[in-house]
Amino acid sequence: VFVFLFNLNTFAKRDNAEDISIILPRESITKFVTKLLPYEIDLGKNFAGSLFIESIENFKIKDNKISFSLRIYGKDITYSTKMGKQMASIALGSVNLLNDWESSFRFDVDKKIIYIKPHLVNSVDTKKASYKEVLINSLLKAFSDIEHPVDLQEIDPITTEFLGKFLTVNFEILNIYAANNEMTIKVRPIPHISDKNKTSVDKRPQKK
0.85 exceeded by the pTM? Predict the structure, then answer.
C-alpha cells in the first residue's frame, strides 16, 4: 500500500521523503482494543482471585486525552491483610463494576516514547460504598495518575519487490496527537532500494 504513496524520485532521494499522517478514528481504535478483551488485571500481593476488564464503553478522544468506561468483572476475589501478628482474609466474592477513566498522553520526540497516564474519574464515596467497593477501588487507584512509558522506537519495516528491485521502507515516528475523536500518528518513511540480482547473489553460500 505504501508503495503507491510515493513517486520514484522519493525512493531515490532519502532526504526528500514525504511525511505521512496516519489518522486512526475512534471507531477503529475501539475495535482494536475490544479484540484484546477480556484482559486480566494483576491483583498484586494482597488480592487473590480473577479480575478482568470485560468491555470498554463510551470511548472518546479530545485534546490529547482519551476518556472511556471500563466494565470490570471478577470472581472469587479475596483480600488479605495483617492484623497484629495474624493474617486476616476477607472474601469479596464476585465483582461487577463500571468505572470511568480519563487517560492523558504525551510523546517524547527524542526518545520515541509515549507516556500514558490514566486517571480514575469516579472514585467511590467511602462513607456510602460497601467494603467490597472500597477495596476494589483502592486496587484500581493504584493504576491511577501514574505515567506508563511505551517504547515506539521500533516499527516493522515494509519490504516488497518493485520494478525488479527490492524495496525496504523504514518508518520514523515524528509525533502523536489526538483531537476530535481521532488519533494522528505522523511518520517519516525512509526508503531503501537494493538490486534484486545483487541481493540474491549475496545470499548464496560461499564456496570453501
Answer: no
